[in-house]
Amino acid sequence: MTGEMRGESMRNRPALLLILSLVLASALFFRTDSPAFAQPATVYAQSGAPIPFHGLRPSGVTLTAGMTAFQTSVAISDPAPLKVGQIVETLDSSDEIMEITGLGASTMQVKRGVLGTIAASHISGTILYSDFTTVEVMASGVGYLPTGATLSTALDGDTGTLENSGAFLAQSIGTGETTINITDASLVADATVVRIDGTAYVSTTNDTFLGSTGRSPTCPFYIQAGDSISFGCATLGANPDGPTGSGILAKVRLRADHLGAVSLHLQDVVLTDVTGVAEPVGEVLDGSATVVSGSPSPPSPPSPNCGGTGLKVCVLPSLQNVGLGNEFTAYIAVQNITPLCHSVPYPPYSACFGLGSYQFTLKWSPATEQLSVQSVHRGYLGDDGQPWSRNIYLAADVNDTLTVLPVNDSTTLQAGWTALVDSEEMLIVGVSPGAPGTITVVRGYHGTSPASHLHDRNVYAGPERMTVTRASLPAPHSAGADFRDNLRLLRVSNQSLLSAPALQIDSEWFKVVEKPARTFRDTGLTLSSNVN
Amino acid sequence: MLSVSGSGLQKGWILQVDSELMPVASTGSGTVTVVRGFFGSQASSHSAGTAIKAVFPETNTVRTSRGFQGTPVQSHAVGAPITDLDGLGAYQFTLGVTAAQTGAHLTGQVDSTTTTIPVDNTAVLQVGWTVIVESEKMRITGLPTGAMEVQRGSDGTGAAAHGAVPIRGPVVVDPVSAKDGSLLGSTGRSVSCPGGVVRGVENLQFGCSTPQGGLPVGPGGDGVLAQVTLSSRALLPYAPAQAVTLSPVTLLRASGNVIPNQVTPVGISVIKCPDVNANRLVTPGDATLILQAYFGLYPINLNTQDVNVNGLVTPADATFAKQVYFLSQPQPVRCPPPS
User: Fold this and answer.
1) Mind listing the pLDDT tens digit for each residue in A270-289?
2) Which residues, other chains included, contact A231 with Cβ-Cβ below 8 Å and sequence gap of 6+?
3) Nearest by CB: A154 against B38, B78, B139
4) Where do the CATH 2.40.10 domains begin and end in chain A?
5) CATH assignment of A380-462?
6) ipTM greater than 0.85, yes or no?
């Protein structure tokens, strides 16, 4: 028995040594909390009550074989809760108490019928009570670790704030696509919302022209769908007559979320006189805006002049500069509307009428669209999170500087994908298709280190991408568009003091996605010569 | 190859000039070699003086996901302190209950097999006790004049030779086993206790850990590290409190860093199993009978009612009985048959 017991203890020791090694390694290689910041935790044993001598409670151990009244060794379900010297009682009709004299891996040796009880036979499954009590080893005041770092810029509590992600669309997407290739998935890992920047719709209102003669416009026609607004207003009754001449029909407010050109395309324009007869529109003219950095002064409300002569409907101003992030107005103007004369079914049987209603559709590009992120995938990982195996491998040994790598088959690879070889990431910037073929790469991408790789090493490669749920009426977007997400950039006093995968500021927790964060901004450098 | 106005661009950065995206393939003095019109953008001509934007790491910044694990998103002021959510990741402790000195000593050298061992004072020893001589436990089976008859190497300890050394004992409380409590895994970290329970002569060593680093966050605050079962081995007059020691205790953060800690000692007593009405169960009825005996409403019986073994039946004995009852809920403690 004793030998078995010793053996059991010895079997436990190598594993314990592993823990001890961890503890020792931690003490040697990891820091201990600085007493300046962290309060020590308190550890204590908590006992609910005194221990009743030989008090018996369910041990959780059962006999796994029957035993006669004479056996002194019996199979049990688990020796771990028991110890030599304890007493156990069989909870059956005999209520025999035995003293444990030895324990094996699944057996128990006992002295039978102690403490005035009588040895009896017991069946398999008999529950054993043993004399034990439980104390709890408590830890109190285990604090998280103050770092000494502080916020350098204030942070608002707006959950809707979206910040530039630093990533771009790596492909143009239509309205039906929900897997979107992007330049760098690691920048949007853990984002739940992204907004592909373009031009966002704000509002549309009827202007003064239609009601300028005293008629009362109502505007029942309103369909806002992604990158367009269809809008219309009408007046009722024959008197007073509708307006003629030139004026502003409506104002469409948009927000410039993206640098560059914004096209404002006017279509499906319908004008009618007060009787509902359509006025023939001679020409419909589009407008545009250029979104620039800074905040250029907004243009004054334009005079309703589309240029030239004849009945025209146009977007004014035809070109305007808009500051990034600012709202701007596209005025829908009508020029030179004249009374429309036609027969009427009542005296004088022929009459001329002014404007009674209008409607139009304004479509802009690029549009802003907000998407819900379902998942984000690094290029070299499949949707299951495992390396994306395409049965592609290096066709020769490569050193740590070679940028044109031979592979067994490059026909399925594409420029713009990220590749992983061993632990080095690479950006594929060129592909010479073939089997075998070559790929041209930027080595040591994403902060990994260029290294030598052996022939036959796997090349895992694919597009950085995210899967999204699109808006109910999604808009198309062009490759190269940047986008925002709901991750937040913390500016801190000293990032080297931060080491945990999550942080606490006040009572809010933050998951660390990237440290230091990559941001998209001006480098302060310029081209020093023209580039064609 | 682009000529640029200064230095600092690095390989792998993504540049944007006007709306054209260009990854940097290599850098030189005042130049960078880029891949033009990349990521679906349109290669176009650019004028000297055009600003170069880039995606690049910025000092003292952290990209984060807010409101992690359901915490409320708040405003935070400049200067707000930042805490690493680096909670508990592992623990290890040794729990011991050290036997006192008996006052008796071995009177000379004994080998590892002798079972009748000369001692200088048998009056302080009792048959049935488990005593400790150096690191060997012995169970006293007899006390002839000037000696103790023992079972050697009990409780799995090794029988060994001894000189004239003190005898400690009796073993009143014996650590038996341990299992992980609720704290370490409370945030969803995967807990393993690879070393299991390592039993020493008068203690046990136990520890559990979680994978180093990563998420979920390790727990903070208060909680149960482990549950340790103790067994009663002897009942002493006046039920003196036995010091339960915890040493050494190691607490590690999920990162592996050491959490300093201080241990608060506690004592635990072994009392008589309070079965006054001889039904073998500890119930409130037993406490009531003790009180009735104290107030003269029930016959005094020191064997069953003097729970703390101080020679008196007092309300304190009833209190102990109630504590045992409440400790053992929902199933009552069973006591051995009345002797």
Assistant:
1) 999 999 999 999 899 999 99
2) A204, A219, A221, A222, A223, A250, A252, A359, A360, A361, A362
3) B78
4) 380-462
5) 2.40.10
6) yes
